[in-house]
Q: What sequence folds into this?
C-alpha cells in the first residue's frame, strides 16, 4: 500500500470512530471502573481486589497530556505494576527502562520512583495500553484486545496533535494498525521498523519487558535508538 493510500485509510478510520458506546462508558470515552465487557478480566480484577483491596484493580487510564505529539502503546497493565499503582508502566520492571529512556530523551521530566505520586510528568508524550485491564499471565485473549480497542481509538482520536506512535510489541502493533484501519501486510512488525500512516509516524519496538531485557532480545541501546528516531522525527 502506498503512503497516500495509508493516509486516506488512516483519515477515514479516525473520522469514522464512533468511540466506545455510551451505554458502556456513560458520557465518557473512558471505561468505567467496573467495566464488564471482558468477563474473564472482570473476574480477575475482582479476585485481585478481594486479595489486594488497596491496589488500583480497575481499567488503567492513559497517562500524559492529550495534546501530546507522541503516544506510546503498551500491551496491558502488569499485575504488580499498573494494576497495583494505577499508572501505566509504574511499579514493575518495564517502567524502569521506559521512564529512564523517556527522561533521557526529554519526553519526561522529574524522577521515576515507581509510584504514581513521584511527581514525574510526561512532556509532549502520552502512554496507554492496548488492553486496559490486567490479564492473567500477561496474556490478553484476541477477543479482549478487540473489545478494548474502542477505548484505544477514543484515546487516539482525542489527540489532535498526534504525529508519532511507538508500539511496544506485536500485540500493541497489531491493535494500533487495526485502530487506524491499516492492513497488517502494509506495515509489518519488526523492531526498529517505521511506517508512515498519514500524518502519523509509526515506530515499532520490542516490548520493554523483563523477559525481553533479561534475554537481551531488547537492550537499553536498542530501546534508546527507537526513541532517538522519534525525537528526530518530532524535532
Ligand atoms: S479490557 Fe477494556 S473492554 Fe475489557 S473489561 Fe477492561 S476496560 Fe473493559
A:
Amino acid at each position: 500500500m502506498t503512503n497516500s493510500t495509508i493516509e486516506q485509510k488512516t483519515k477515514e478510520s479516525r473520522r469514522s470512530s464512533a468511540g466506545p458506546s455510551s451505554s458502556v462508558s456513560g458520557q465518557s470515552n473512558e471505561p468505567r471502573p467496573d467495566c464488564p465487557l471482558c468477563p474473564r478480566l472482570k473476574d480477575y480484577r475482582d479476585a485481585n481486589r478481594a486479595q489486594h483491596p488497596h491496589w488500583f484493580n480497575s481499567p488503567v487510564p492513559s497517562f500524559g497530556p492529550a495534546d501530546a505529539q507522541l503516544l506510546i502503546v503498551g500491551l496491558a497493565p502488569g499485575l504488580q505494576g499498573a494494576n497495583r499503582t494505577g499508572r501505566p508502566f509504574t511499579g514493575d520492571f518495564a517502567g524502569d527502562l521506559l521512564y529512564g529512556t523517556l527522561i533521557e530523551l526529554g519526553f519526561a521530566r522529574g524522577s521515576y520512583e515507581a509510584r504514581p505520586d513521584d511527581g514525574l510528568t510526561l512532556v509532549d508524550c502520552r502512554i496507554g495500553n492496548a488492553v486496559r485491564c490486567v490479564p492473567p499471565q500477561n496474556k490478553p485473549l484476541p477477543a479482549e484486545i478487540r473489545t478494548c480497542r474502542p477505548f484505544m481509538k477514543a484515546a487516539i482520536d482525542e489527540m489532535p496533535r498526534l504525529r508519532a506512535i511507538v508500539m511496544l510489541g506485536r500485540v500493541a502493533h497489531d491493535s494500533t494498525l487495526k485502530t487506524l484501519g491499516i492492513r497488517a501486510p502494509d506495515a509489518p512488525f519488526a523492531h526498529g521498523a517505521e511506517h508512515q500512516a498519514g500524518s502519523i509516524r509509526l515506530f515499532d519496538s520490542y516490548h520493554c519487558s523483563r523477559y525481553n531485557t533479561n534475554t537481551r532480545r531488547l537492550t537499553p541501546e536498542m530501546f534508546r535508538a527507537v526513541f532517538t528516531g522519534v525525537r528526530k522525527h518530532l524535532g
About this structure: The first strand starts at residue 70 and ends at 74. Residues 31, 35, 37-38, 41-42, 59, 131-133, 144, 147-148, 151 surround iron/sulfur cluster (CB under 6 Å). The chain has one domain: 60-234.
